[in-house]
Specification:
Elements (H helix, E strand, L loop, with lengths): L11 H9 L5 H33 L4 H14 L11
Length: 87
Amino acid sequence: MSKRRITLSLDTEIVEALEAAGGSSLSATANEALAEALESVAHRAALQRWLDELDAKYGAPDAETLAAADAFLDSVFEVDEPVRRAA
């Protein structure tokens, strides 16, 4: 893949974390971290599109169903304090 030289100003803590992560160079480590972050953003966007399709096809879940799903996920991920959904 081709490379393009740019200048970034990063927080000291970010640079230190990237350096601590190792890798062949700071640029390579930062490039890998950014690629993973972009992949995550794309995955969440695809998931949101799928959920929107389900809402369009079946209707949005009611409050009781959402509460049950939240409780289930809290138990699966062993959450001590339930996460409150934004309304």
